[in-house]
Amino acid sequence: MTLRHVSSSPASLWRSFFYSPTASLITIALILLGGAAGWYAWRWGIADAIFRADFKACMANQDGACWGFVTEKWRLIIFGRYPYELQWRPAIATFSILAMLVITAFPQTWNKTGAKLLCFFWALALIIFFVLMKGGVFGLQTVDSDSWGGLPLTIILTLFGMTLSAPIGILLAIGRRSDLSIIRGLSVGYIELIRGVPLITVLFVATFIFPLILPQNLRIDAFWRIVIGIVLFQAAYMAETVRGGLQTIPKGQFEVADSLGLNRFQVYTYVILPQALVTIIPAFVNSLLSTFMDTSLVTIVSMYDLTGSLRLALGDANWRVFFLEGYLFIAIIYFIFSFIMSRYSIWLEKRIQSKKERLCANTKVRVKNVEKTPS
Predict the structure, then answer these.
(1) Nearest C-alpha neighbor of 24 from the set 13, 37, 9
(2) N or C end of the chain: smaller count of CB under 10 Å?
(3) Positions in the chain short of pLDDT 50
């Protein structure tokens, strides 16, 4: 069976899925299989499920899911080991970061004035986040970063991992293309070294080995050691992503920029990077999703993100048998965030492509007008 273009009209759909006896049989089989799976999921997950935190009812119910485990343990799953009575603080802290991410996603904020406001409010949101999470000021009880966990930890590690690794990755990508052998060698060496080891090894070294080589009077909090490890690891992959974008830029772009008298910094800042970064949006989002899900590895160094917090919740022997519902719960959270980021990247690509097409069309019109103007 060959792949064919699928249109939205009924006739086209019929021709696409029932164009031969074999295709018809496969289509009918898949429809029946999907319908049976959907019916079973509905019965197990909703119709026959228990949603109240009633352990005895869940044990007696053999036909449906026990979402009562999530009802009972959702605060532990979302906020980890953060003190129960203080969990309003990570809730507000996380909301401030998510609100800024939503605001930043609107193109109306991307002008010069909007960029200044974004920088100010991002700084304010980060201050609010760490003041609320850490405490120790304004009468707030101090909470060590060892007790941070759940969704707030996942989001802040992803945010730092991507935003701080991006400029480092750009510098490494440019350094790898440098004419100076020592800069090119150092960049290549770093990229290949980091890409040659798994993230779990980097986190282990950052958490347990790195403090041993620091001076005795210098101590870095475990949270920041993990951030440094994720940033340095992600920077190597970001460098290769950016290098792929730079390779799509024709050599003539560099020559034109040089002919205008621009120095190397101006060439990359105003001419090359704006074009290269647009081409790597899909790869950048892929790295973002990878970082978002790889934060689960911090459990190995005794910090509990969303996945690690679920393991803490499953430590209750009474509810441990309902682990499937717990993993489905966090899978839904991961899917919602990943789906939103994926759809936004697709929208952003289309928007940029549309603007490029309009710009090209306007340029062609202007050229024709100039050609028609009598000399």
Answers:
(1) 13
(2) C
(3) 1-7
139 three-class SS: coil
Looking at residue 1, its pLDDT comes to 39
Residue 92: which of 130, 149, 146 has the closest Cα?
A: 130
Report the C-alpha gap between 192 and 304 in whole angstroms: 29
Residues 225 and 302: beta-carbon distance below 8 Å: no
- List all residues 6 or more positions away from 195 whose beta carbon is below 8 Å from its beta carbon: 236, 237, 240
Residue type, 172: L
Q: Please list, residue by residue across 4-23, b when 16 or more beta carbons sit within 10 angstroms of its beta carbon and e when fewer do.
A: eeeeeeeeeeeeebeeeeeb
**Inter-residue contact 239 to 191 (CB < 8 Å):** yes
Longest dimension (CA), the chain: 92
Residues 6 or more apart in contact with residue 49 via CB below 8 angstroms: 61, 64, 65, 66, 67
Q: Is 136 exposed, middle or buried (0-12, 13-18, 19+ CB in 10 A)?
A: exposed
What is the CATH number that goes with domain 68-82+143-363? 1.10.3720.10
Specify which residues 305 forms β-bridges with. 150
Give CA 295 to chain center in angstroms. Answer: 10
Token digits of residue 47: 């119709």
How high is the pLDDT of residue 4? 45
The pair of structure tokens assigned to 108 is 């109306």
Cβ atoms < 10 Å from Cβ of 211: 13
Query: 318 near 68, Cβ under 8 Å?
Result: no
Question: Which one-letter DSSP state was computed for residue 373?
Answer: S
What is the rounded distance in angstroms from the CA atom of residue 175 to the CA atom of residue 189? Answer: 11
The pTM of this model reads 0.85
- Per DSSP, 296 falls in state G
Nearest in space to 150 (alpha carbons), one of 310, 322, 314: 310
Q: How far apart are CA 8 and CA 23, in angstroms?
A: 18
Residues whose CB falls within 8 Å of the CB of residue 159, separated by 6 or more in sequence, listed in order: 97, 101
d(C-alpha 280, C-alpha 119), whole Å: 24
